[in-house]
Structures are given as structure tokens and as C-alpha cells.
Design a protein that fits this description.
Mean pLDDT: 81
Structural class: alpha/beta
Strand content: 5-15%
Bound molecules: zinc ion
Order of helices and strands: EEEHHHHEEEEEHHHHHHH
Distance between the termini: 30 Å
Low-confidence stretches: 19-64, 66-80
Largest sheet: 4 strands, mixed
Helix content: 40-55%
């Protein structure tokens, strides 16, 4: 992937190696958590509970976005700003999704609100609750932030055998895809449906959401390449390989030795590849109607 000369995003919040007492925002201003919450106090808690209910029929949807059971995770040594190539890479990918989705929202007559990307190590507190790195990267609709521990990329490369920078970019683009679903109101509509659904049906809806986020990731790659020629030979294969590697069937086979399609929450390898490719080839939001297609 050609990324080195790309723009860096202003929306990366680096909480790696911190004590958890505060966070820094771009420009070097440092605030305590209390200051940021601005006295929300009890209201914040209620909002959190509502959000948990909102997404909470199955909390795994919140915290196990890429369902990875890695067991005890080795926590990486905190990186300094210098020589932080991976952090730099993620910042460029995020910036590229911003440029791409801003343009696409403009064309639809809307306004794209940029999400924040939080880098953390080991564990993190979000508006959706507390999360550990073992749960994988996730998007929290309540604070519109994407959370990722970059150690996940080692898992992706070594455990899931999905190496390559474009595989890594796909992970970010998928989470940003959830943000787009949030902005478009799709997440809210689906939640209403999930509340009336039984467990198998709720899982099916979750799969359709995930496949759409894959399709949106493909849309990003399509337009980013059209505008900035980011793709190099082998990149598409890297992305498709990553989509397949984190499919539910492969995950289940890996963790429990057999496959239970009703328990799928993200889609099979074949489905994930199919929908990522759908977005990649068409570049068209309308092609990502996974709900109409029943996720197939
Ligand atoms: Zn997802």
C-alpha cells in the first residue's frame, strides 16, 4: 500500500502506555477525564446503561467486534512518538477514510462527522464500558470512537495468517464502516429490529451489520484508490485474505472445533470476502444493502 506520503489525521487519541488518568488530544493539551466529562456524573452512567441496552441484547456486539479469543495478551512496551511506524500508518489510513467519506457524504448532501481513533495498550475505558485488548478492535457509537490496540496486528499476522499493510488498513476501514452506519441511522434501525427478534434472528441482524461494515470498508478502498492510487500489487488479496481469516466459521473451528451458523455474529469467511469485494468493485453504497440480500 502506498501510504507514506499520505496526510496524517488530527483525530488520533494516543492512550498507549498511559496510567489511565488522562489523555492527550492533538495539539498537546492534556485534560483529566473528569474535566472532559464536564460533570455529567450520574447522567453519564445512565447514558452508558442505555447504550448498553441499545446494543446490549448481545454485549459481544459491543466488545468483540473482531471476535478474537487470544487468552492472556502480552502487553507491548509503550512506544515513543519517534519511530512509531504503525501508529503513523494508522493515522494515515484514518485520514484517508476521512477524506473519502467526507467526499461521499458531500455527494449525498450530508455532512461527515469524523470519528476519533483511540490507540490503547492492554485495556481501555470507553463510553461503551471497559474493554480489554483480547476483545479486539471495536467501535463505540456512544462516543463515536474507534478503539484499537496495535498488538492486534501481530495476531492478525501470526495467528490469523493475514499479513500485510492493506490487511491492517481493512481493520480500520471496517470499524470506520460502523461509524458510517451510525451516522446514516442504520445502526438505530437495526437495533429496533433486534429488540423484537429472537436470538438466532438477532444474530442474523448482527451478521448483516458486520457484512455491511465490510462492504463499506471496500467502498473506502475503491474511492481511495481512485483518488490517490493507494493500492499496490497484492493489496486486494491481502484485504480479502484478512476478511476470510476473521470469518465466524474459521473462528469457531479454531476455538471450539466445530461450526454453528446460528451463532454467527459477523458472517462466514465466504460472506465477509464477498461483501468486502462488493464494496471494493462497485464503490457504491447502494451495493451494500446486506439486509435486503439477507446477508448472503
Ligand atoms: Zn464489526
Amino acid at each position: 500500500m502506498r501510504w507514506q506520503l499520505g496526510r496524517r489525521s488530527q483525530n488520533v487519541e494516543d492512550r498507549r502506555g498511559g496510567s489511565g488518568g488522562g489523555f492527550s488530544i492533538p495539539g498537546g493539551v492534556r485534560m483529566s477525564r473528569g474535566a472532559r466529562r464536564g460533570g455529567l456524573g450520574g447522567l453519564g452512567l445512565i447514558v452508558f446503561v442505555l447504550i448498553a441496552m441499545f446494543l446490549g441484547v448481545d454485549p459481544s456486539m459491543l466488545f468483540q467486534d473482531q471476535t478474537v479469543s487470544t487468552g492472556p495478551d502480552t502487553i507491548g512496551t509503550p512506544r515513543s512518538g519517534a519511530g512509531d511506524e504503525l501508529g503513523d500508518f494508522v493515522s494515515v489510513v484514518l485520514a484517508d477514510t476521512e477524506d473519502t467519506w467526507r467526499e461521499l457524504f458531500d455527494r449525498m448532501g450530508g455532512r461527515y462527522r469524523e470519528p476519533t481513533l483511540v490507540l490503547f495498550s492492554g485495556q481501555v475505558s470507553s463510553a461503551c464500558g471497559f474493554a480489554s485488548a483480547a476483545m479486539g478492535p471495536f467501535y463505540c457509537p456512544a462516543d463515536q470512537k474507534v478503539y484499537i490496540d496495535l498488538e492486534f496486528y501481530r495476531d492478525l499476522r501470526e495467528r490469523f495468517r493475514a499479513p500485510g499493510d492493506f490487511a491492517q488498513a481493512y481493520v480500520i476501514a471496517h470499524e470506520v464502516g460502523h461509524h458510517v452506519q451510525n451516522l446514516l441511522g442504520i445502526a438505530g434501525e437495526v437495533q429496533k429490529l433486534r429488540q423484537q427478534a429472537g436470538e438466532a434472528e438477532a444474530n442474523a441482524l448482527s451478521v448483516m451489520m458486520e457484512l455491511q461494515a465490510d462492504c463499506f470498508a471496500g467502498i473506502w478502498a475503491h474511492h481511495a484508490h481512485e483518488a490517490r492510487q493507494i493500492l499496490e500489487e497484492g493489496d486486494v488479496e491481502e484485504g480479502l485474505n484478512a476478511a476470510a481469516a476473521i470469518g465466524d466459521d474459521r473462528m469457531q473451528r479454531r476455538t471450539q472445533g466445530y461450526v454453528v451458523p446460528d451463532a454467527f455474529t459477523h458472517g462466514s469467511s465466504e460472506q465477509r470476502v464477498r461483501w468486502f469485494r462488493e464494496g471494493l468493485v462497485s464503490g457504491d453504497l447502494k451495493a451494500c444493502n446486506t439486509f435486503e440480500a439477507g446477508g448472503r
